[in-house]
Design goal:
The protein is of the alpha/beta class and 280 residues long. The protein has 2 domains: 124 residues, no CATH class; 125 residues, no CATH class. The protein has 11 helices and 6 strands. The chain is globular and about 55 Å long. Pfam families: DUF3025. InterPro entries: DUF3025.
Length: 280
């Protein structure tokens, strides 16, 4: 089954179906035993239950609200409305929007930073009467939908990843990857795909170097640090899609029941080699 065949049927205990969902366990623990879709009130409880209030960069406390009819009015459009009012339009019985809510609760600083990027990029596009999306907004969208945060204390592993040496990384260096490299899904679109993972499922990676001590911390503390680091990274405000590394996420040990055999990594349609630059 692939992403196009997803249904909106509720699945109780969905966060336990894959290791990819681990970052969302804390935020989604109240939904783990639900036998029905969370409603808007349930989603807003995510903010009430947070240690610190989830706020936008404009200092608005976020609230999930039902999706409104499409409008051309700038202040009512999706990202501007979040930035200006804190209201996040959310569809009922919708996995994509549920995962968006859970990511807001898990990575609040980074989601607020992304929203700010979107808002200011949209303002610039309006100011200059641009019809085409800016490179900044394209990159922000890719992170928001398909972002994967890769942390490692091993420069050699990071080099292998950057060079698309997937079999060497995920198979020959498997033990080192498990000990010194970790993937954290960020993009809510990628989480939706993880409900029914399929060969070809690819994220857009942001690479962070960490100390060995990072891996000795609790998962919840690791996520807090990643949220701060990603917020700082996004604060640069000039990233493009070229800054993001394609990540075949099902290659990570344990993230697919099929990747326990070395031949899994021979599929170059999925584990693609790096394109060589043409010399003119």
């Amino acid at each position: 089954m692939n992403a196009r065949s997803l249904s909106n049927e509720w699945t109780s205990g969905f966060l336990q179906t894959s290791l990819m969902f681990e970052p969302l366990h804390e935020a989604g623990k109240s939904f783990s035993n639900f036998n029905h879709w969370p409603d808007i009130e349930n989603l807003n409880q995510l903010n009430a239950d947070s240690i610190g209030k989830i706020v936008t960069k404009s200092h608005k406390s976020i609230r999930f609200v039902p999706q409104a009819k499409a409008t051309s009015e700038f202040v009512q459009q999706y990202e501007p409305r979040i930035y200006l009012t804190g209201e996040i339009q959310t569809r009922a019985h919708n996995w994509h929007d549920l995962f968006n809510a859970l990511v807001w609760a898990t990575y609040p600083r980074s989601k607020a930073a992304l929203n700010q990027l979107h808002y200011h990029a949209l303002l610039e596009e309006r100011k200059h009467h641009q019809e085409k999306r800016s490179a900044l907004r394209d990159a922000a969208t890719l992170i928001d939908e398909s972002g994967v945060i890769v942390v490692s204390s091993n420069d050699y592993l990071i080099k292998l990843l950057k060079n698309f040496a997937w079999k060497t990384l995920f198979w020959q260096q498997r033990a080192a990857v498990l000990a010194q490299m970790r993937f954290f899904l960020f993009g809510h679109g990628l989480y939706e795909k993880a409900l029914h993972p399929y060969l070809g499922m690819t994220g857009k990676g942001i690479l962070l170097h960490v100390s060995e001590a990072f891996f000795n911390q609790r998962l919840i503390d690791q996520i807090v640090l990643i949220d701060i680091w990603l917020e700082d990274y996004l604060a640069q405000g000039y990233l493009t899609s070229a800054d993001l590394v394609p990540i075949p996420v099902l290659g990570y040990p344990g993230w697919s029941s099929d990747n326990t055999d070395s031949s899994y990594y021979d599929n170059q349609s999925y584990f693609r080699q790096k394109k060589m630059k043409k010399i003119s």
